[in-house]
Fold this protein.
Amino acid sequence: MLKAKVGDVVKVHYTGKLRDGTVFDSSVGGEPLEFTLGFNQLLPAFEEAIIGMSPGESKTFEIPAEDAFGPYRDELVIEIEKTRLPQNMELEIGQQLLLRDPNGQAFRVTVIDITDNTVTLDANHPLAGEDLIFEVQLLEIGSNLLEDNA
């Protein structure tokens, strides 16, 4: 029986959940996720869990926070004066902003608190510190890019 291996293009349906059962992402009911195994297009632990699966097979697996988006880091939460933001900018809690560091590198932050004079921004990934549970069904294995290019 055909089994997924590094270099294979695969299609999967997945549902990602937190430990409390909250669904944070899912392809079910939409287009399946298509990617090439071993090319680090997704979390490495997600790709590794697909290796060895056969079309039609389903599995549930957990990715600990340290292998997903890392631990939540308090040092990535900053409070800035509102005067440092554009004057007419409308802010709301949960809003995501794109900022640039002094080197011009863009990074995403989430507004987590607003006072009269300050805004608190969180640069952690929204899933940082969370163990992730995935329910995956392998739908299809396509051509192996490593063999096709050999």
User: Anything to note?
Assistant: The chain has a mean pLDDT of 93.
